[in-house]
Amino acid sequence: MPSIVGSRDLQNADPQQKLRTAAEQLQAAFAAYCEERHADAQSLCRSLLRELPNHFFATQLLGVSILECGQFEEAKLVLERAVALESASAEAHAHLGFALLKLKRHDEARARCEKAIALKPDVPTAHRTLGIALLRLELGEQAVAAFDGAIQLAPNDVESYCNRGVAEMMLGRHDAALISYERALALQPRHFESMVGKGMAHLEIRHFDVAERTFNDALGIRPDNAELLAHRGQLYLQSERRAQAEADFDAAIALVPSLELAWLGKAQTGLLTGNVAQAMIACKKVLEQNPTSAMGLTRLGACFAKMGDATAAIQHFDRALEIKPDCEEAITSKIFYLDFLAEADFATQQAARKYWWDQIGSKLPMRKLAVRPLDPSKRIVVGYVSSDFKNHSAAHGFLPVLRSHDKAKFQINCYSSTPTEDALSTAFRSVADVWVDALALSDDELADRIQADGVDILVDLSNFTAGNRIHVFARKPAPIQVTGWGSCTGTGLATMDYFLADPVTIPQNVRHLFAERVFDLPSLITMDPISDVRPSPLPMLRNGVVTFGMFNRIDKISDRALAVWSNLLCAVPGSRMVIKHFALDEPLLRDHLVGRFAAHGVSQDRITCLGSSGRRDHLLAFQAIDISLDPFPQNGGASTWESLYMGVPVVAKLGNGASSRAAGAILKAVGLDDWVADNEEGYAAIARKYASMPSCLEALRTDLPAKIANTPAGNISVYTDRVETGYRQFWRDYCAKASTAL
């Protein structure tokens, strides 16, 4: 609350007042106001104004007292009268600005405060109220300047330091925000809002331990603060403590049933745990009370995507971006799920990635790199950045390469943002020359470490998938940056130099659409041979019917793919289909999927849904499959390799985007060109043809592992040599260009 009226106001009152009693009344009213006896203060002011209706000081004091009582509309009317009586009073304009601020009339509040400052630049509260109005208008830079003005006039103003921290958070300057919050807390150690802000700043820069301690300290002051509980829930969610996160979100909702932040947390928890029903309910709770919630629309879109409706998902993301064009979660969700939309071609996919760069990446501070020796033949330092150095499908695609690097020529650094490690994490650690736990490093801290380590080539293994560190790559802490393997669709970053792909996935005629230069590998990804589980005898020989399989994420099952599969099942007598994915542990998703087949005339007993299992059991499940059906438009990658190594051939279709050509590229790379179609009719024809050729399937089941090993795509040593050839070429080209620039 601004400083309102002081004794100076009384001293400046008209010394020629005709009625001494009016001065006494004003003195008494001011005394009552100072003692917070607002009813008495207001009664005395009203009495005085009945006698002297144009008395400025009585009008102002009345308006301020009403304002402090929270009667903002009435206060505005009275303070407008005060401004009319004394238009040159900076204090009156500032008080009116504060009333307008409380009424959420932020543009008007801003104008009044700017008028007050123009009349009298040394009123700290006018600067502070202006800053808050600018915050509400999302004008972060101007808000920081206003709070700086308040602090210059009142160096011990805790509220201005705290609010400056809020403005700096809005601008993404989390380190600067921390300085503001710490200054406020130095002045007032138990200032609740500054404690919460400090915790949120530490959360944003991934200092999870400090954030948790700060939130817990703040909860010690206000244990029933619902918003703070929701913030702590978000912290728990980011550190993969989902049960604790949900408990905090539930506690926050119990306190404030309409709290949007908590419902958004519930939605996110549901999406992460596969409880889509919970997520949808939570999103609808958000949108019932705030139909223009960009985050509510984004997460509801993700729910539709999980249900296999990519079109509805994209519509929700676009609606969110109409409301908030820089809503990063909506942008990255759209990037991810455009790969599931048949109509989304290369141009559409790359335009979405460029949109992220324009809205987010281009605004991040790029690094100035130190001069380094330009030796084309040096041992190159390669840094791999991922949150998937663990048992994850993507990891099976890049572990073979990391393990096979020539350590005499390449130093391998791994920057891991993996929240929980497992046996595969140990394997990654064993192949790394330098291992950095980067989960709790902010983007700037990780960029600092990469620069300090002298990384020559920095490789992104995540693209825009969960846990990515794409903000680090936007800063460009290494002279050469490459994306590949984890999610091979290009990034759209002007700071990304190369994209590891292959000629089938990224045809020559579309390469001009990419921000990166494409370097061809034998195939988009490779995989280690599977030695602990061997291919089984062909199941159709003992079953008498063909069994199709799809061991991919169920959100890849588009309506078109499902229609083709349904027609195929109807066309091949007695055929069955097994679909396996951990999300099928969720009854809603399982029932929804079976219902989609039923709508196409496929009876429930012909569809088998399998849920989560360990990797060995996952691979053993292929023993029941004769032919794998690749989903489209979003193809399988690691799942394609797994099927092939288990002796199960895969039917694939080439589409119009990178993600819709991945499986076909793998099949062509291992010599299974006949299993790749150009359209849906061809796809179905291939499946029908081989379903009637058990002898061919039996031979493939035996021969496929050896066939793969004899190709550059399946021979890990040959494949890695090609990767290293690329790295050496990138480095030599950089050295030549940098030498020319000297």
Backbone CA Rg: 32 Å
DSSP strand count? 13
What is the strand arrangement across the widest sheet? Answer: 3-2-1-4-5-6-7
**CATH class division of the largest domain:** Mainly Alpha
CATH architecture of the largest domain: Alpha Horseshoe
Count of DSSP-assigned helices: 34
| Overall form | elongated
Summarize the structure.
The chain is built from 34 helices and 13 strands.
Quick tags:
Rossmann fold, alpha/beta, Serine Threonine Protein Phosphatase 5, Tetratricopeptide repeat, 34 helices, elongated, seven-stranded parallel beta sheet, 4 domains, 742 residues, single chain, six-stranded parallel beta sheet
Give an overview of the whole structure.
- The chain folds into four domains: 7-235, Serine Threonine Protein Phosphatase 5, Tetratricopeptide repeat (Alpha Horseshoe), CATH 1.25.40.10; 245-363, Tetratricopeptide repeat domain (Serine Threonine Protein Phosphatase 5, Tetratricopeptide repeat); 380-520, 3-Layer(aba) Sandwich (Rossmann fold); 539-712, Rossmann fold (3-Layer(aba) Sandwich).
- Helices cover 56% and strands 8% of the residues.
- The chain is built from 34 helices and 13 strands.
- The strands form two sheets. Strands 3-2-1-4-5-6-7 form a seven-stranded parallel sheet, with helices on one face. Strands 10-9-8-11-12-13 form a six-stranded parallel sheet, sandwiched between helices.
- Strand 12, helix 31 and strand 13 (676-677) form a beta-alpha-beta unit.
- Helix 3 (38-51) runs antiparallel to helix 4 (56-68), helix 6 (90-102) packs parallel to helix 8 (124-136) and helix 19 (310-323) packs antiparallel against helix 20 (328-338).
